[in-house]
Amino acid sequence: MNKKLKFGIIGCSSISERSTIPAIQKSSFAELEMIGSRSETKAKEFAKKFDCVKFGSYENILDDNDIDVVYISTPIGTHEEWAIKAAKAGKHVLCEKSSTVSFKSAKKMVDTCIDNKVRILEGFMFRFHPQHKKVKDLISNHSIGKSFLFNGNFGFPTFPKGNIRYDLKLGGGFLNDCGCYPICASRIIFEKEPRGVMCNLFIDPETGVDVRGHSYMVFDDQKAASA
User: Fold this and answer.
1) Superfamily name with CATH number, domain 5-123
2) What confidence tens digit (pLDDT) does each residue in 152-175 have?
3) DSSP string spanning the chain?
């Protein structure tokens, strides 16, 4: 049996607490090795909650030779920094979505991982959900006919002021936080990248971040998607 992958957590976020760390602990392929936070107090609290002996700073995670993979769950605007540092430290990277704020930044992250012979994965969990596999199977075997149009919507109630989603410097905004879901789903359904994209974002004048929007994507074979 192959050894379990040992995970180091960078960022004591609500999603890591609610979903990712419990999933790691339930997995037969992974185990929780260390928890890292900017705050030693918070790292210690998380470590106690999840019965993890080792905790410390983000740098401590990268310096630990026992760790195989880092899970990055910091604000989107900081993902590039820690993904690149992790790759250079020889760690594989599981990066919470959205992976980063631009194509240029994403390419830099991927290129660094390739150069250091480690893998990187963006954490869109829905891609691996059984219901989405079922949808893909129905489309692939033509049970529901040939697909030409994808229409996706995703959103949630407004967050209170001060939430990091309203911080432009931290990569805040609707597109990176939830608009990315239907866009990603359309590419999975059509199994191609769009050859044309139009996007309309509504910017909050107070914070400078996009708070809602709409995109239209054109694919080959007369296929299109709206999100």
Assistant:
1) NAD(P)-binding Rossmann-like Domain (3.40.50.720)
2) 999 888 889 889 999 999 999 999
3) -PPPEEEEEE---HHIIIIIHHHHHH-SSEEEEEEE-SSHHHHHHHHHHTT-SEEE-HHHHHH-TT--EEEE-S-GGGHHHHHHHHHHTT-EEEEESS--SSHHHHHHHHHHHHHTT--EEEE-GGGG-HHHHHHHHHHHTTTT----EEE-----PPPPTT-GGG-GGGT-SHIIIIIHHHHHHHHHHHTS--SEEEEEEEEPTTT-SEEEEEEEEEETTTEEEE-
